[in-house]
Amino acid sequence: MLRRLTMAILLLILSLGASAATAQDSGAPAFLRVVQLVNDGAAVSMTMTDGRPVLVNFTPGSISDYFPYVAYRSAAATFIVAPSGGAAYTRAWTFPPLAPGYHTAALVGGGGDNTLDLIVLDEDRLCAATRADDSCIILINNVRNSPPLTLNLDGRGVIGGVSYRQAAAASAPAGGYRQLTVVDPATPQTPFLRIEQGYFAPNLISLIAMSGGYSGGQPVNMRVGLPRRVPTDIITFLRGLTADLQVTDGETLYAAENIVALIEMARFETLFGNPNFPLTVFAPTDGAVLSVPPEVFECAMSSTEAMRALIFHHISVGSYTPAQLTTEGSLPTLAGTTHTFRAAPGGFVIDGAVAVTDAEHYMTLSGSLYLIDTVLVPPDFEQRYCALG
């Protein structure tokens, strides 16, 4: 009897070990980005032990793109720190084994006094409790000598007690907010950070990364990074942008119910939700769709071919950031047409006419999404598809 029980326990241990090994060798990727928050102006370069450069002379407030990282393995990196007015020196850190998913490494502390530290945040774990109609906010405090800070949305505390060189996360209802502030609870009338008419979309992870100093009751040399990521695919994110949430910056209502209805009518949901086929999508808001000339809208609705051409004119293969779009200068679309891009303050311009801000760019699991205030109509659309109407 004892031998049978022992064998059963051994088999159970072996099966659990095999399951764990299978999970760890499943090939699911991890992704890591680095946020440079050194609070005294030091520039930082970072190289992985395999020789891959990640940061090159990154100044405080800079944020890298996500780069692939082998899940469940630790990896070492070398940092070259160049303090302003001081001699450069080298520091080495070992990143812990990371689970599949997305992670942020925040370089905090000061370069001149060699108080640097590395905070590694598992974004998916921190935001796991966020509901589908909420937004997850991660606050990183690297404001030297600051008291524990609180994040307020329209005067309501969402995250509290975030001390120097620490981070915390919480969820907030999606929607528009008249005022977003980060404050010392003892002196809430003097915000460290104030953003008027802020908004948070559903299914969104927002990072508020603060660096600088605190002296005489006032923040000094403040630098703030506000990157965002969507932990779902494009179609899921668009479905969450309903008009009743009132996700607005005070001028534009970021709702996408009309374009979602058109995508579903054309049966393109799978195209927008495939992580293995990344796209760059320019999605018109509800206001943009409602502003389309009636004859163009009726033409698109009356012909499957016209609807396909109109939707495909908003899609390019591959995921492109704003910087990559303006570097490329132009991209072909799935409709066989071409869009041009040029840089503009705070964003870029499509085809010399449609302005897009960096704030309207969302990185999703299936590519880059841009919310735009205009429907992009192909140059020959009416001649090709509407002339017979």
Write the layout of secondary structure elements.
Layout: H1 2-24, E1 30-36, E2 43-48, E3 53-58, E4 67-69, E5 75-82, E6 89-95, E7 101-108, E8 117-122, H2 123-126, E9 134-144, E10 149-153, E11 156-162, E12 166-173, E13 175-183, E14 193-200, E15 204-215, E16 218-225, E17 228-229, H3 234-240, H4 257-265, H5 269-272, E18 279-284, H6 286-290, H7 294-302, H8 304-312, E19 315-317, H9 322-328, E20 330-332, E21 338-344, E22 347-350, E23 354-357, E24 361-364, E25 367-372, H10 381-386
Parallel strand pairs: 1-7, 9-15, 18-25
Antiparallel strand pairs: 1-4, 2-3, 2-5, 5-6, 7-8, 9-12, 10-11, 10-13, 13-14, 15-16, 15-17, 18-19, 20-21, 21-22, 22-23, 24-25
Helix pairs in contact: 7-8
Task: List descriptors.
389 residues; alpha+beta; Immunoglobulin-like; FAS1 domain; five-stranded mixed β-sheet; four-stranded mixed β-sheet; 41% strand; disordered N terminus
Number of helices: 10
The CATH class designation of the largest domain is Mainly Beta
Number of domains: 3
Low-confidence stretches: 1-26
CATH superfamily (homologous) name of the largest domain: FAS1 domain
Radius of gyration: 24 Å
By CATH, the topology of the largest domain is FAS1 domain
The biggest sheet, with number of strands, parallel, antiparallel or mixed sense and barrel status, is: 5 strands, mixed
